[in-house]
Amino acid sequence: MQKLAYKAKQQLQHHQQESKGHQKRLQQLIASIGGSPTQERLGLPLPSYPQTIKEMMINSMTEQEWELKKAEEDMIVENAEVTC
Asked: 84: burial class by Cβ within 10 Å (0-12, 13-18, 19+)?
């Protein structure tokens, strides 16, 4: 189980590095055509939970579960980027 978690962590780190590379390249392209890159987000449709569920998640989720939650949100963002 630990080996699987380690491999998943490595894959997530690799994906994060790739995403940062994409972001840097996009910032350079925007600047090259006279634009000004921003850190603003488009407001993609990330899951929104009722307050009671949010509180339960905050109080009960482990660090690994939060990493999975973040990976889920990253996947949603990636799919939206492809669609755009």
From this structure: exposed
For 3-47, give the DSSP string. Answer: HHHHHHHHHHHHHHHHHHHHHHHHHHHHHHTT-------------
- Rounded-to-integer distance, Cα 65 and Cα 71, Å: 10
Q: What is the pLDDT of residues 21-58, one digit of tens each?
A: 888 888 898 889 998 887 776 666 667 788 999 899 88
From CA 80, how far away is CA 20, in angstroms rounded? 17
Q: pTM for the complete prediction?
A: 0.48
